[in-house]
Amino acid sequence: MATLARPERTEDRGPFRILSPEGQPSEEALAELELSEDQLRELYRLMALTRRMDLEATALQRQGELAVYPPLIGQEAAQVGSAYALESSDWVFPSYRELGAALVRGVDLVEYLHFYRGTWHGGTYDANAHRFGYVAAPVASQVLHAVGFALGARLDRLPLCVLVYFGDGATSEGDFHEGCNFAAVFGAPVVFFCQSNQWAISVPLERQTAVPIWRKAEAYGFPGVQVDGNDVLGVYAVTREAARRAREDRTPTLVEAVTYRLGPHSTADDATRYRSEQEVERWRARDPLDRYRRWLAEAGLADEAFFQGVEEEARAFAGRVRAGVVASPPQPVEELFRWVYADLPEHLRRQRDQAVRFAGEGDHGG
Amino acid sequence: MATLARPERTEDRGPFRILSPEGQPSEEALAELELSEDQLRELYRLMALTRRMDLEATALQRQGELAVYPPLIGQEAAQVGSAYALESSDWVFPSYRELGAALVRGVDLVEYLHFYRGTWHGGTYDANAHRFGYVAAPVASQVLHAVGFALGARLDRLPLCVLVYFGDGATSEGDFHEGCNFAAVFGAPVVFFCQSNQWAISVPLERQTAVPIWRKAEAYGFPGVQVDGNDVLGVYAVTREAARRAREDRTPTLVEAVTYRLGPHSTADDATRYRSEQEVERWRARDPLDRYRRWLAEAGLADEAFFQGVEEEARAFAGRVRAGVVASPPQPVEELFRWVYADLPEHLRRQRDQAVRFAGEGDHGG
Amino acid sequence: MAEVTMVRALNEALRRSLAEDPRTLVLGEDVGRLGGVFRVTDGLQEEFGPERVFDTPLAESAIAGVSLGLALAGWRPVAEMQFDAFSYPALDQVISHLAKYRFRSRGHQPVPVVIRIPFAGGIGAAEHHSESPEAYYAHTAGLKVVVPSTPVDAYHLLRQSIADPDPVIFLEPKSRYWSKEEGDLDGQGLPIGRARVLRPGTDCTLVAYGAMVARALQAAEAAAARDLDLEVLDLRSLVPLDLETLAESVRRTGRAVVVHEAPLTAGFGAEVVARVVEDCFEYLEAPVLRVTGWDIPYPPATLERYHLPSVARILDAVERVTSW
Amino acid sequence: MAEVTMVRALNEALRRSLAEDPRTLVLGEDVGRLGGVFRVTDGLQEEFGPERVFDTPLAESAIAGVSLGLALAGWRPVAEMQFDAFSYPALDQVISHLAKYRFRSRGHQPVPVVIRIPFAGGIGAAEHHSESPEAYYAHTAGLKVVVPSTPVDAYHLLRQSIADPDPVIFLEPKSRYWSKEEGDLDGQGLPIGRARVLRPGTDCTLVAYGAMVARALQAAEAAAARDLDLEVLDLRSLVPLDLETLAESVRRTGRAVVVHEAPLTAGFGAEVVARVVEDCFEYLEAPVLRVTGWDIPYPPATLERYHLPSVARILDAVERVTSW
Ligand SMILES: Cc1ncc(C[n+]2csc(CCOP(=O)(O)OP(=O)(O)O)c2C)c(N)n1
Ligand SMILES: Cc1ncc(C[n+]2csc(CCOP(=O)(O)OP(=O)(O)O)c2C)c(N)n1
Ligand SMILES: [Mg+2]
Ligand SMILES: [Mg+2]
User: Fold this and answer.
1) Could you give the strand order of the β-sheet that contains C256-263, starting from the edge strand earlier in sequence?
2) Which of A254, B239, C120, D302 could form a disulfide with B85 if both were Cys (CB 3.0 to 4.6 A apart)?
3) Smallest Cα distance from A101 to chain B, Å
4) Whole-prediction pTM
C-alpha cells in the first residue's frame, strides 16, 4: 500500500483511510489487512466495550466514585485500532486518556480506574504484566520514557517496539521534540502515536501548531503518517506497519490519528465555554463505531444478533467494573511510606509511625 | 533568486551560495545584492577585525587575562554576513560564541570580553544601546527570549525583527522546539540563525540530528534555508531576505549556515581528542576570509594597499581592546548585592554589610 | 463591602491591572476563552482582547522564556502555570534566567514578570496537581515569592506583584480558591515583604502561609478551649521574609511551631526555624518544631488527609513545646 | 596505596561498575570520545564500547527521561549532567518522574538511575557553571542525594550509588576534582546515609559537605591555634541524613555551625539547623549558625571569593557561638 510504504506522501491524498466516513471500503487496502473475520468483529467488540466503559467511568465520577475522569468518547477507533495492531511483547506508554488501549492490552480496568478514584497513582496494576505503563499526567513527559525503554530493548536485541500515546497539544512540549530527535539519532524502535483530537483542553489545534502534526516527522528524518483516526481499520493498518518498521528497520514513525474529543477534556471541564455544539455535531456524524458497524453489517460480517450480544456483554462488563471500583476501600496509610524507597530510611520510619498514630487516633483533619 | 523566494527548495541544490569555495561568483545573485563597493569592502574589514580580535582573545586567555574563551575562528562569514544584514533597529540575541556579531553591532569589545574575564556576567555593556543581548550559556535557552521579544515588538507594531544565534547542538534542546513552534503560531518576527559548525564540543552533527538542520523548519511551517556559512555574501543575502520576511510578512525563517569551528570548543577544550587533523585541514582550505579576499581582489574591488590597511587597523584595534581588558579592575564587592533586586531587601543588606566587612579585612579566602 | 472568593479577588486584581496599565499582559494555557481551569482569568480576554490576554501553546518553558522576552520588550507579563507540577518544565528558565537577568545586566534589563501558580493540595486532585514547590523558588536568589492566604490579601498581593519591578512567583493555594472574605479591594494593603499577625497570642507562635494559615487558626481556636493562647503569623511573603515581625512575635511567646504542606526535609519551614534560632535563641523556651507534609511524593486523593498537617498534629506539636 | 585524584577515583568507580555489572550504562554529553569535560569518563567508551558508554544529543530532559526508560527496561544508567546549572532542564523529569516512579508503581517499576552532577564553584568558571542545587534535590522526596568530599570516599559513594535500588543524585564538588588522597579503593566504605567525623573536637561542631569540608578542616586548624577545638562532620549523604551522628556530635559539643556554598535562604543548612534544634535543644549552648553563599546569583569569577564561605567567616561564626 503506497501510504504505508511512502507515508511521507500522505499529504498528496489527505489522511489515509480504509473505510470512508460513509463506511465505503478501499478494497485494495482491505485485501492487504490480513485480518480474519473474527478479528474484524473483535475490533468492533473492543470499541463497543470501550465506549460503554468510558460512559460508565464518567457516570462513576458524577456519582462521586471517581475523583476525576477524562472521557475518550470519539477516540475509540484511534485507541483500539492502534493497540490491537501491537504484539503482546510490545510495550505501551499511555498518557491519561487511554482506557481503550488499556482494555485492549488486557489491563484490569478496576485496577486502571484506581488512578482516577485516587486509590493510588498509577492505579493498582503491574505495568509489566501487560506491558502497559502508568498514567502520565505531565503532558509529553512519557515520550522520553518510551524512547528510553525502546533504546534499552534495542540494546538487548529484543524484537519489540514501544508505542507511546500523546495528544496534539503534547507536540508543543520540549519533551516531545527531544524524544523524537533522540529516537531518530539512535534508531530506537518507537511508534509516536498522536491522538490529534483537535483540542488541548480549550486550545484548538491551530493555536498549537502551524502545520499538520504528521509533518513534524520531517524534522527528525523518519516517516510521518496522517490517518483517519475514526477509521479503526486505517488506524490498525498504519500502526501495524509503523510497528513493523520500528521492530525490523529500527525506524520510528510519527502517526497522527485525526480524531475528535466528543466529550469534555475531563469531568471537571465545561467544553461549552470554548467550542460550538455544531462543531461537536459535525464530528458526532463521523462516529467511529457507527462507521465500522455499518460496514460490518453491509459486508455481511456481523448481524443484529452479534451487535446485541456485544451490547449485552458491554453492559455486563461495565457493571462488573463498576462493582469492583465501588467496592474498593482506600489503601492503609502505611502504604504511603512503603514505596518511597526500597528500604524505609530512619527519618521516614519516624514519620510513618507518627502518621499511623494520628490515623489510629481517628485524626482525619488534614 | 530562487533560494530566497522558495528556500524550501534548497535541498535540490545543496547550500545556497554566491561565491563558490573557489571564489567564483554567481553573477545573477551578485546583481541582486545591492551592496555598494564600500559595503563589499566593509564586509571584509569586519571579518578581518573579527579574525584578529578572536585570536587576540584566545591569547588573552592563554595569558590568564580571560578566564575562558570560545574561539569563533572559521565562523567569521556566518557571523559578519548575518549581523551586517540587519537594521540597527533589529535585535540580536547571541549564544556565547558571537564576538564577530557583537563587533558588527558596535558593541565595545572590552565590555563584551568582561564576560570572559569574569568581571561581570553579561559583560559590562548595555544590551539596549546596540540591541545586542547578553551571552547566554544555557544552550538554546536564549531562543525563547528572542521569540518573546519579537512577540512584544509585534504587539507594539514595531517594524523590527529579532535574530537569535545558536549552534547545531542547540537544535536538540526542547527550548529550540518550543521557541520555533511558538513563533510560528504567533507569527513572531524572528530569524532563527543556526551556526552549524559541525560539532557540539565533541559530539558531531550526525549524532545530534538525523536530518540537515534547515529541514527542521518543516515542523513549524516556516521556511528553512541552508546556506554556505563560509560565503559571507551568501549569508548576507539569505539573512537579509529572512529578516525582510520576518519584518514584513511576520514569517520566521530557520537559517542553517554550514560552517566549521576551526578552533577548540573553548580554550579549556582539547579537540584533538575527538576529531582528526585532516578534517580540520579540509575546512581550513575553505577559509571564509581567503575566499572572499580572493574574489575582492579578482573583481578589482580591493588591492594590496586595502588589505594591508585592514591588517594594520586590525592589529591596532586588537591592541586597544587588549589594553582595555588588561587595565580593567574587578568590580567592588558591593556590586554583588546591588543588582539582585531593584531595592536591597533587609536580609540582603545585612549580608552585604558582612561581605563588605570581610573584604575590608582583607579576607580573600573564599 | 461584599464577600469575595479568592478566585474573584484574583480575577479583579488582574482586571484592574490590565485596565490601569496598558503594558500588562496575561498569558498561559487556557487563560483565554476558558478563563483558566480555575476561572481566575474569566472574562479577561473578552474585555481586553486576544492581544492582551492569550492562550499559549502547551509549553511551560516557553511560557516562562517568552514572558521574559516580552518583559525585555517593555511589557509586564502575568503568566499562569496551570498547576504546581507543571511549573517544573519552566524551572530552567526561571532559575537560570528570570532570577538572574537583572543581575546579569546590571539593571539594564529588569524582567518584571509575575508567574502565577495554583499550588498545594487538599482538593482531591490527581498526581502532579497538588505539589508545594515554594522551597525551590525561595532558594533561588533573585526571585520574590509570595503566598496569599485570604481573598482580600490575595488581591492586594497580586496587584503589588504585578507592580513590582522584580520577578515574582505568586503561589495561589488552590484549596482556598473558593474561600470567602469580606473586605476592601481598594487601598493599598500590606506590602510584599511584610508578614501579618492574624491572631495575637501569648503562649506560642504558629507560623504558616497559604492554606495552612486557616488550619493554624483552627488549631488556635481548638487550643483556646484548652486555655492555650496561640499567636498565628501569616508570612505572606517568603522572599523577602519579614524577619522583624517573626522575631518580635517569637520573642514575646518564646515558642514557635511552623506549619506547611510541603515535605519536611529542606522545606521552607527549616528556614523559619533557622531564622528564629538565630534571632531569638535566648528567648526560646523550647525547640522550634515543624508540622509539615511527610517526606513522600504527594499522596493519591483518598490518602491526602493523612499527609496534610491536621489540627491534631499541630496541637500535638504545640503541646510538646508548651509542656517543654 | 597510591594517591588518587577525585577524578581518577570516580573514573575507577565507573570502570569497575561497568566491568562487574553488564547492565550498567554511562551516558551524557561528551562522555564518550572526549571522556567528559572533566575526564571523569575518560577511556570508558574505548574499554566498554559505544553501546555501554555513549554520547547523547544536547538535551538534558531527554538524558533524564531516557535514563528512566532505560531503567524500566532493566538497565542501570549512570547519567552525567555536564554542569550544575545544566541539570535544571531535567528537573521536571527528575522531580515528576524519577523521584516518584517507585511510589507510583508500588514497587513494580523501580528506577535505579544515578545522575552525576559536577557542582558548586571555586574554579573561576563562567555564569551557570558554579551552581549548588543540592537543596532542590534534597527537598524532592524519593531521591537520595549524596555529596563526596574526598577522592576515596567519592569512589565508595559512587559505587554504592550505582548499586543502590533507588535514584541517586550524585553531586561532585568540582573544586575538589583534582584534590588527592591516599587510600584503599577496595572494600566497602561507609554506606549511603552515614555521616563521618573527620576531626573530633569538643568546643563546636562544624557541619559541612562537598568542597566545604576541606574549608571546615582549614578553619578547625586555624581555630586550634586559638585554643578552640572544633569537630568537623562530613555529611556525605544529605538524603537520607545521618540524624544520629549529627545529634551525637552536637550533644557533645553543645554548638554547631553549618557551612555550604549555596545561598542561605532555604538552603540545606536550614534543614541541619532545624534537625539540631529538634534533637539537641537542651544541649545547645548557643544558636546554630550558618555560613553560606549570599542570597545572590552566583558571582562572576573575579568576585566568587567574596561569596564562598572563607576560613575567616567560619571562624567569625565559631567565635560568636563559642563566646555566646
Ligand atoms: C506539562 C503539563 N502542562 C499542563 C498540563 C495540564 N493539562 C492537562 S491535559 C492538557 C491538554 C492536553 O492536550 P493534548 O495533548 O491535546 O491531549 P488531550 O487532552 O487532548 O488528549 C493540559 C494543558 C499537564 N497535564 N502537563
Ligand atoms: C543546557 C546546556 N547544556 C549543556 C551545556 C554545556 N555546553 C556548552 S556549549 C555545548 C555545546 C554546544 O554546541 P552547539 O550548540 O553546536 O554550539 P557551538 O558550541 O558549536 O557553537 C555544551 C554541551 C550548556 N552550556 N547548556
Ligand atoms: Mg488534544
Ligand atoms: Mg556546534
Assistant:
1) C196-199, C230-234, C204-208, C256-263, C289-293
2) B239
3) 28
4) 0.98
